[in-house]
Amino acid sequence: xxxxxxxxxxxxxxxxxxxxxxxxxxxxxxxxxxxxxxxxxxxxxxxxxxxxxxxxxxxxxxxxxxxxxxxxxxxxxxxxxxxxxxxxxxxxxxxxxxxxxxxxxxxxxxxxxxxxxxxxxxxxxxxxxxxxxxxxxxxxxxxxxxxxxxxxxxxxxxxxxxxxxxxxxxxxxxxxxxxxxxxxxxxxxxxxxxxxxxxxxxxxxxxxxxxxxxxxxxxxxxxxxxxxxxxxxxxxxxxxxxxxxxxxxxxxxxxxxxxxxxxxxxxxxxxxxxxxxxxxxxxxxxxxxxxxxxxxxxxxxxxxxxxxxxxxxxxxxxxxxxxxxxxxxxxxxxxxxxxxxxxxx
Length: 345
Ligand code: WQD
Fold this sequence. Notes:
Order of helices and strands: HEHEHEHEHHEHEEHEEEHEEHEEHH
Radius of gyration: 19 Å
Number of strands: 14
Largest sheet: 7 strands, parallel
Bound molecules: UDP-4-deoxy-4-formamido-beta-L-arabinopyranose
Helix content: 40-55%
Strand order of the largest sheet: 3-2-1-4-5-6-11
């Protein structure tokens, strides 16, 4: 297989998940051949046809658990030219990770290690790792730069992201054939404009925006705002809410940086956000404004583990990835509402 064709094939682990599926769409639209593996533990096989309806391409799919070493090595034996990987597959519920730490350390770290072991011996290996702003804990300064100190993780989930980055840094140091970009996501929200793919939370949503849209649709009685006594302008927590399509596009930009060998170091991290902080109340008011839906909510106790404020300094990502978030909070909330209505019909 020619080098250029080999460079255009990319494995997306967890590619039927929320961010993975939007990234698969962005990759296909950028001319990549996408192969998806997913264990379907937190995704529906229906997402595959959603990707096809958007792009006209049905990606190659394998139902596969990265923790099943035999299954994974059999897959890679059939893919001798595969060297580009975007690794999303992981468990991601912060609260659940506190209750089930071993499941999180096994699924998130054994999965990563099995993946990396199968890439050993290959040349031109490029890995994009799905990391998170949780590695910063409550950062001391806003906006948060990549130089902000890594704080002790607030949850096993956050710890698996910190350890995952350390494993990748060590592998890059040991193996000159491996290059890595870790993307530290802020808060992904919204859905593809087609409403063919979006977020599919299982059970009661833990995250703010899906809880808002389910409340607006009448599935939830009212939104509990977890604390309005924080040291912020309106007393509610501040986050950097980034449209999932902007986040997906950041992965395409990072892959191009890796393939075109534009890295300054073979292990790089980038904060991927909008650079703008929004409070919970601002999100609620924005949602009501763009949808015309009144949102019933009340103030409740603070949620343990929440940081007061987190929004990104995107200077490096903008400059080095030649990427910038282009969707507004209103765009993202409008798309989230369109998606909620679509899946309920
Ligand atoms: C945002 C704000 C809540 C729900 C987490 C993970 C992070 C990433 C994104 C995986 C907070 C408030 C929420 C509700 C509320 N996950 N809230 N009522 O906690 O910033 O980030 O999800 O990659 O790693 O840590 O996102 O959406 O849960 O909360 O008031 O019903 O909304 O207190 O201030 P969070 P979130």
